[in-house]
Amino acid sequence: MFFAEVIVRKSAIASLVYFLAMVLPERKSDPPGVYEKPFKEMYDYIVVGAGSAGSVVATRLSEDYDTSVLLLEAGMSDLEPDDVTQIPSLWGSLIGSEKDWGYHSVQQKYSHFAYENERAYIAQGKVLGGSSSINAQNIVRGSRNNYDQWEHEGAVSWGYDDVLPFFRKLENATDTSYGDSILRGLHGPINIKETTGSILQSFHQTAAKEIGFSTVDCNSDDPIGFCKNQMNVKDGKRCSTSTCYIRPALERHNLQVSLRSRVTKVLIRSNKAVGVEFIKDGKRRRIFAKHEVILSAGFISSAQILMLSGIGPRKHLQQMKIPLKVDLPVGQNLYDHLLFAVQYNITAPLNINNKKASEPDRILEYIFNREGKNEVEGIILQNVNPLYTRGPQIELQITNKAYEEGLVLDPYLAFKKEIVKEHLKRVDQNSFIVKMFLLQPRSKGHLRLSSKSPFSSPFIDPRYLSHPEDIEDFVRGIRLMRSLEQTKAWKSIGATLVRQDVPGHCSEKKFDSDNYWRCIGRHFLTTATHFIGTCRMGSVNDPSVVVDSRLRVIGIKNLRVADASVMRYIPSCHTNAPVMMIGEKAAHMIRLDRTHRYNI
Ligand SMILES: Cc1cc2nc3c(=O)[nH]c(=O)nc-3n(C[C@H](O)[C@H](O)[C@H](O)COP(=O)(O)OP(=O)(O)OC[C@H]3O[C@@H](n4cnc5c(N)ncnc54)[C@H](O)[C@@H]3O)c2cc1C
């Protein structure tokens, strides 16, 4: 992206911060040629996709100096042609950029009525670090029950006590108030920073206390309560799996990272994975794996690559005229969190908006101290529905930022144009966004190939709100959020909900009735881009499963999947930390299996 384009795409603040960041001497770039080493014919391991999980797997496997690892990534470096990925608050400007695959769901039947073409925009990182290089950097692990449920249903050794050591291994939580907790890690590559806290944030905290919530560590095993946002940020910059795992390992002689290398299928002989086929610089290549191929291409591509390789539902592959190798339910069990973003106007000028953030002292504060408004502040408040105890059910992320044109949520929240126009009229300069996440959706979707070509986007159908209980969760979430309006803290700043209904979109309903909110939910809820489940793990006797508990594809030797797609259910949290945990645990299992300490 060239500078002029950046100016057009981003808000005034973003452009200014970008410009100043670019002229600072400490700007990082990769050593020339580091991604262009000549290929060998064979490596011990080939990892497909350098995202949240794949970068972790490749980094850990290459810690064994006698093990050769090839990491193939379809996207570019996160530092090229600019390093906007490094500035935490500019994540929104990466959505829709060349570092985003930019998928869409199919038209939704039960939701998205306020969105263009009634479909969800699905951002996914196409860059070193994958979605960890473009995401919003919130770090939340989920609760004990989330993982205990995986184990209870047959995912052996994925209970909370089994996954905890890997959560601890990946993080360094010294920049938080919880460094002395036995649940937290202090020596891992991912630096976790607790946001510093603004005056507005302190009003949110007081309001949360008034409605009966206590401060907790949102990354503990029982995270009901509220906390300051924790983010994967180091020295004011994004700490992705690219910057904090792969880049420090790039000089290893036994690790080769190849960018712009798009894997099209796994090479399988006699039901054994022997290598991969991929396209780089317009040339089709084949490279072989002595031990294993590990697919970490994310919930869309890992499923797509498996199906293109003949591993998938029999009927679907027959329709696609792809010769079947193993009949497995690839692409099923797709789950995602739903997100509702709403605005509160306030009477006091306590929030950040574009104008305030453009003030020179604030920009210099970030440039020189790597602190301040360029980290996303806010608190996270998590609640549970007592009827349903898989884990926290509602998350309110209460920020200090106003929704304005050019702010982070476009095109993520691609409402129909007339709706955006109307909403912008209602929003004051002094305002803040609340994001509500529905953390335990029951609606289940699926993903299917649209053609035999590896370059065609699959059909992605999350079937949002197809389960009737999900919309009731939303109404419960609204009641929780609106109870904050009754607190002294929010009253003292005049927090007033900005209504979203417009003619044709719920304005005919009686305001604040349950039916009004059900309507608003079906029109305005959208993806939180926390997709999981298309290559589900579990017991080999479970017909919904694609990989076993050691992440091995059932019926094919030497092939594993390690990324968001293997999760059984979606945990009650943002998914980046759980995916990195999966990367850590996968690498651990692969290394152990190789030394035959397990009976496999
Ligand atoms: C916009 C956005 C905001 C988010 N915000 C947060 C947040 O604040 N906190 C949080 O916890 N989670 C967040 N998430 C979710 C989280 O980032 C993801 O769940 C997680 O990164 C998924 O990891 P993964 O390894 O499964 O896939 P990815 O990280 O997406 O990695 C897949 C990699 O494979 C590559 N690839 C794909 N196909 C091929 C191919 N054919 N050949 C070679 N390479 C290929 C991709 O380019 C990519 O680099 C967000 C996600 C998005 C998109």
From TrEMBL:
**Which protein are we looking at?**
Uncharacterized protein
Instruction: Give the matching SUPFAM superfamilies.
Output: FAD-linked reductases, C-terminal domain (SSF54373), FAD/NAD(P)-binding domain (SSF51905)
Family, similarity comment: Belongs to the GMC oxidoreductase family.
Q: Which residues are noted in the entry as FAD-binding?
A: 127, 263
Segments forming domain Glucose-methanol-choline oxidoreductase C-terminal? 441-583
Q: Which residues form the active site?
A: 530, 574
> Per the record's keyword annotation, is Nucleotide-binding included, yes or no?
no
Keywords in alphabetical order: FAD, Flavoprotein
| Domain spans labelled Glucose-methanol-choline oxidoreductase N-terminal | 43-338
Concerning Gene3D superfamilies, the annotation shows: FAD/NAD(P)-binding domain (3.50.50.60), Glucose Oxidase, domain 3 (3.30.560.10)
MF terms per GO, please? flavin adenine dinucleotide binding; oxidoreductase activity, acting on CH-OH group of donors
Cofactor(s) of this protein: FAD
